[in-house]
Amino acid sequence: MTGTTKNGAHDVPLLEARGITKQFGTVTANDTVDLVVREGEIHALLGENGAGKSTLVKILYGILEPNAGNVLWRGEAIRLRAPADAQALGIGMVFQHFSLFEALTVAENITLALPRDTSTREVARKVRAISAEYGLPLDPDRHVYRLSVGERQRIEIVRCLMQNPRLIIMDEPTAVLTPQEADKLFETLIRLAGEGCSILYISHRLEEVKRICSTATVLRRGKVVAACDPRKETAASLARMMVGADIDDVKPPGEHAFGPVRLSVAGLSTTPEDPLGTALHDISFEVRGGEVLGIAGVAGNGQEELFEALSGIVPVRRPETMAIDGKPVGRAGINARRRMGAAFAPEERIGEAAVARFKLSENILLSGHETEGVVSGGFINARGARTLATEVIERFDVRVGGPDPEAGSLSGGNLQKFVVGREMRRAPGVVVLSQPTWGVDAGAAAVIRQALIDLAAQGSAVVVISQDLDEIFQIADSIAAISHGRLSAVYPANEMDMEKAGLLMGGVHASETGEAVDAA
Ligand SMILES: Nc1ncnc2c1ncn2[C@@H]1O[C@H](COP(=O)(O)OP(=O)(O)OP(=O)(O)O)[C@@H](O)[C@H]1O
């Protein structure tokens, strides 16, 4: 953004969408949507899961073409056939999922996206210059596998800034960041806006929208239902615009007694098969019936490996390392653990939790083929599977375009609701979930969190691995943090606060620096 100034001289908007309509089969994802983005504003795009936000920004970035409507750039109608057309105008996009090569350096990754004759050396120089100018620490020579999620996002932002953008589209950029990293991102965005760059900002976190956005467009079921200044609204009033009704608060569990231990882990250590993975070191904890254990941590600190070990995706060597209802399960695979009444919902929705090209009923079979009674003697009861899928869709208000659609046609948040709902349906005795409300809108997140609290109240042991500290404080009875593959001590939630959790997430363990944590 070097050398650009804010141009308030004329009133023509930077970007305008007029009457945009996009249909997928019978679903109208965008229905005559109007949007005006002015120079230098941070403009929030709000809406429930499936409201049509991603579809709209994909149209503005040239990934999708609308069925009807126009896009205007500085007052002139344009046609965006591919992202290259959008980039040529100065539109950049930072995606939710980063497409980076782990084994390459930061500079090599960025070079790949540039014209063939660009030298990695020159890119490295530019990365250094931009990172110094914007206070976005990033070493161009580091390999991506060594970087935190926040640093990976910085690569995408720097990549975007190298193209001198006039508009940056960001799809839920803080979902993967720690509170400190998010603060840093906000500083950068406010600075960019001050320089005249516009930001179109999708987020389900309404407090941060109120904090940094000066205008908002709200979509509901594909239509624009409101435009407002979020600074003048409350999180509740913004949520009401999105949903069209008040959102129920999560009712905290309150004081309650726990039952016997249902999940125990003793001295779990692993060596990752993947050289870029994290080793787990001597992890021990117990979860009793009626208890929700929240495991906080910044992504990449062993959460994935812990989930794989707890679920049996990667069995451990000593059977007694892990027990479900007192029975050793260390060497049991995921299906054997499921037969014992356990359920697991991984973070990665497409690929691990669901297959995009499979219908929802077929996705029910993926995790439930041994436990749901819909496969017997090698025959699949397709109607039974469809009934189960419908039950999940109704209970968790999964918004779908038809009776039994493919998983890949659902919006990100709706697929997450389906994956979590599928696991909760059987009222499992032990359930382990990773990032259960990632990308899920405020209303649906409240439904999922309440369902977890209610499940524990019925006697289940619940483990929630989450980066979202607000979520952990909302639902957990006990809290621990994972950092560099080590788990902190487990604390009762009422002895924990944000600062203490933050220290534990940063690897300050009570055993090493008792005072530091206890004094927090
Ligand atoms: N490729 C596709 N095929 C069929 N339907 C689709 C496709 N992409 C999106 N849809 C449908 O269009 C609607 C809008 O989806 P979109 O992804 O734009 O929502 P969103 O507001 O971004 O949701 P989220 O907050 O969950 O990401 C949804 O009903 C979704 O199921």
UniProtKB/TrEMBL annotation:
An example Gene Ontology CC term for this record: plasma membrane
Gene3D superfamilies, A to Z: P-loop containing nucleotide triphosphate hydrolases
ABC transporter domain: residues covered: 15-246, 263-509
Top-level taxon of origin: Bacteria
Membrane topology label: Peripheral membrane protein
GO molecular function terms attached to this record: ATP binding; ATP hydrolysis activity
CDD domains from the UniProt entry: ABC_Carb_Monos_I, ABC_Carb_Monos_II
Protein's name according to its UniProt entry: ABC transporter ATP-binding protein
Species of origin: Microbaculum marinum
